[in-house]
Amino acid sequence: MCIVCCVLTGDETRQRVKFTDERVCKSHLLNCCPHDILSGTRMDLGECSKIHDLALRADYEIASKERDLFFELDAVDHLESFIADCDRRTELAKKRLAETQEEISAEVAAKAEKVHELNEEIGKLLAKAEQLGAEGNVDEAQTVLQEVERVRTRKKDAEEEYRNSMPASSFQQQKLRVCEVCSAYLGLHDNDRRLADHFGGKLHLGFIQIREKLEQLKKTVQDKQEKRNQERLKRREEREREERMKKQTKSRSQERKRSRSRDRDRDRRRRRSRSASREKRRSRSRSKERDRRRRHRSRSRSRHSREHSHKSSRDRDRERDSKRSSSERRSDGLNGRTESRRHDDREAGEI
Prior knowledge:
By secondary structure, the chain is mainly alpha-helical.
């Protein structure tokens, strides 16, 4: 499915996928896909299995200015896998050379390695001079060429030491070494043109670009991760600070509630105390009033009793007097009647 998508035109690709699609090559978006960099070299990797489209790269570059998409992680994984394969091929090539070439002493090997290092330095300087000349920086290119001449002198001395340390027959044999950057074979007796073609060639420079891009991406990923960790730490601190503030606010609120509750309780106790005091005063007042009424009733009853007793005594006196008068009247009537009868009797006797 991915291979079919790769052969689509740019317009069709844009219509079908976006740069965030998993089928899009993230290394291509970051301009570091080995399939693009090593295209046309003897290590051409062919077409990438994922979608390559310059329009998608442009979309990504616009979007990446607004937010972090962390496509660098995918690109780092891709390049690390590629460089690991290259390093394995380098080690295998070194092993094969060690098996095929005549074994030499450690001292001679060190001298041969010094010649190789000087060859590599000359090749890099020549490639740099050619690049500066192509860019129009003639003076700087001449300065680099002068440095090349000085390194050539040092190389001649190193080759003399190497030649004197071993038999002439062995010295004439081509001693090879493996380039640590691109795994290509380099000869001890390679001329300057051969060295310049190698170190200034697309293959070697492409591997340098890939390795440098990998280190750059690693640093970018590390910086972004540190920044993200700092932001995460800052957010966590802010959350903790907000939680502390909430707890403090809640604590203060609870304290205010407790204070208000205590105030209410205190006010309630005061009201109850005042109410109790008023009730006591009322009770005492009622008690006093009852006592006054009781005393008043007692005095009234006593006065009434005295009055009643006095009245009763007068009544009894009057009754006694009345009885006595009645008795006297009865007695007087009886006496009168007796006298009258006597008088009548006397009159009757006289008659």
